[in-house]
Amino acid sequence: MVYLAMFHWGWLLASLLLGLAMGWIAVVHRGRGVSKKTTRWLSVLAVALIAAALTRVVPGRFGYWLDLGLVMFAIYLVGCAIGSWLRDRVVSRQAAVS
Amino acid sequence: MRGLFRWSSKWWPGVIPLAVLWAIAAWTTTVPLEADLTAHATAALKDSVLDKTVISAAGRDITFSAEAFSEQGRSNAVASVETVPGVRQVNDGTTLVPEAKPFVWTIERDVAKVTLSGSTPLPVVKSKLLDAARATFSGIEIADQMNLSRGAPPRFEAAAVLLINQIGRLKNGKVTISDATVNLSGMARELGGREAIAAALKNLPEGYSVANEVHAPPYIFEANKDPVAATLTLTGYVPDNAVHAAIVASAGRKFFGEKVVDKLKASLGAPTGFDGVVTRALGALSRLSTGTLVVSDREVNLSGDALYDAAGNQIRTNLPKDLPQGWQAKAEVSVKPAAAPVDSTVCQQLFADLLGKGTIRFESGRATLDSDSVGLLDRLTETALRCPAATIEIVGHTDSDGDDSFNQSLSERRAQAVADYLVKAGMPADRFKPMGYGSAQPIAANDTDEGKAKNRRIDFIVRQ
User: Fold this and answer.
1) Chain A interface, best mutation among B7, B8, B31, B33, by max A CB count within 10 A
2) Residue A46 contacts B where some CB pair is shorter than 8 Å
3) DSSP labels for B421-446?
4) How far is Cα B2 from Cα A79, in angstroms, rounded to an integer?
5) Within 10 A of B98 (CB to CB), how many other CB atoms are there?
6) What is d(CA A11, CA B338) in angstroms, rounded to the nearest whole number?
């Protein structure tokens, strides 16, 4: 994993920034979110993909692409979480001031 | 925390650019990643001893096939690749090098090429053997047809290097190691090569047995007696300097009228009994007026002209007799046409000339003719045959050592021995009158060894 992080740091950083931006926007976004049912299905899909990656059932290049995708996705989620949290703090402070 | 769940339902639009990023990342990084992992895996195997190593990467999976020389080496190599950072899994296609039974290694030399074939235990041994072959055969093409196998006999490398050095002494030939049995065959480049190889093979590591069938060029000794130039030319080989000196000294005594031209060289590889046979054959040659002696390995060939019939017969019968085991002799001796008869005065002159050049020798204190004197005796016989009407007094003299009656008797017996030799040539016994004077008629002072040697003599005096 350390090797992957070092080899792909540029792409991971891009994922993180993308996540930060998306998280930043999500807090004040007024559009519709993903329904709970869909979230559940997506979670099951994510768990299945993680299981496939950990058990190394996908061979060769596809296995590598799966690993890469999951790592980028995980970093993206971390970025989203940090972005949303920061935006939430900013929004709360502005609300308190006004 | 609840907020996080709420917000997270709105994170999905970012997944679309993320998917694009992922696709680009997958597109651009796969090949460099595979190249990087392959390079790292190859570097990790740098110290492993393997043959036919193939490493390829698909994503983060390494497919690794190779032939290892031991189970330990094989599992260590796989473990080294598995521990390369970034490798997800290793598809292990390694096997052990096949075991050769029997383990056979061969080096063959012909005129323009040296071929190494068969099995060697390790790549490093293989390259060492090739290096040894290149050092031994500089300038000759070396063909490597060796493969790698397990099951080499102990200390194979030392044995093989030693044998490569030995095959350098062959003009053509083949050496095979089959398990711990060594077979050599071929033709040595030089005389003595066979013996040098046999000596070197004693240094083979313990446990190796040898079948040595190396042949050597014939060991040749030649002597040519040329009466016109009055020379005896010795060419060819003798085993060592001591035998060399002995043969030249013996030739000097036997060929009293000829100059000995010595072109002999010392070399190993003489057949056993060489010096004895050569000395005897030189004695036979000394009886010929002109002739050639060739000793080739264990074969003696004498050709030329004897001085008279009986001498020819004696040479033909005596030469092949009492040779050491394995020796053969062939005498192609004809008889020189008889010289024209001369009167007694000329005869006397001829005897005096011959006895001036050489002395009839006897064994010390006895009346047995020395074998070195047969050449001179044949000359004297030939001369006696030229004056058939003459009666010849054969007079024996001794030096002053010992008591007078013994010397008297010795001189008489020695004169008789010479007369007997002449009679054997077919002349009537009554032509010869052997007599002895003991030490009564010295021709030199008896106080030096040289003087004594001059006094020990046989004189021929021609009477009408």
Assistant:
1) B7
2) no
3) HHHHTT--GGGEEEEE-TTSS-SS-T
4) 17
5) 13
6) 120
Comparing C-alpha atoms, which of B293, B260, B261, B253 is closest to residue B277? B293
B33 interfaces chain A, CB cutoff of 8 Å:
yes
List all residues of chain B from 46 to 105 with a beta carbon under 8 Å from chain A.
58-61, 85-86, 88-89
Question: pLDDT in tens for each of the 464 residues of chain B?
Answer: 667 777 888 888 888 999 999 999 999 999 999 999 999 999 998 888 888 889 999 999 999 999 988 889 899 999 999 998 888 889 988 888 888 889 999 999 988 899 999 999 888 899 999 999 999 888 889 999 998 888 888 899 999 999 999 988 888 899 999 988 999 999 888 877 888 888 888 888 888 988 888 888 888 999 999 988 889 999 999 988 999 999 999 999 899 888 999 999 888 878 888 888 999 999 999 999 899 999 998 899 999 999 998 899 999 998 888 788 889 999 899 998 888 888 888 989 999 999 888 889 888 888 888 888 889 999 999 998 888 888 999 999 988 888 888 989 999 999 999 999 989 888 888 889 999 998 888 888 888 888 888 888 999 998 87
Q: Are B179 and B229 in contact (CB under 8 A)?
A: no
Please state the separation of Cα B64 from the chain's center in Å: 53
Dist. CA A62–CA A53, nearest whole Å = 10
Site of tokens 């000394």:
B286
In this complex, do B9 and A88 lie within 8 Å of one another by their Cβ atoms?
no
Instruction: Judge contact between B382 and B418, C-beta under 8 A.
Output: no
Cα nearest neighbour of A72 on chain B? B22
Task: Evaluate whether B202 touches B178 at the Cβ level (below 8 Å).
Answer: no
| CA quadruple B115, B117, B120, B122: dihedral sign | positive
- Residue B367: partners with Cβ closer than 8 Å, 6 or more residues away: B410, B413, B414, B416, B417
Q: Any CB–CB contact under 8 A between A62 and chain B?
A: yes
Chain B CB within 8 Å of residue A58 CB: no
Residue A3 has its nearest CB partner, among B7, B29, B86, at: B86
Q: Which two tokens stand for residue B298?
A: 């264990």
Closest listed residue to residue B327, CA positions, set B295, B358, B361: B295
Tokens found for residue B369: 């003719």
pTM for this predicted structure = 0.61
- The verdict on whether omega for the bond into residue B121 sits within 30 degrees of 0, i.e. cis, is no
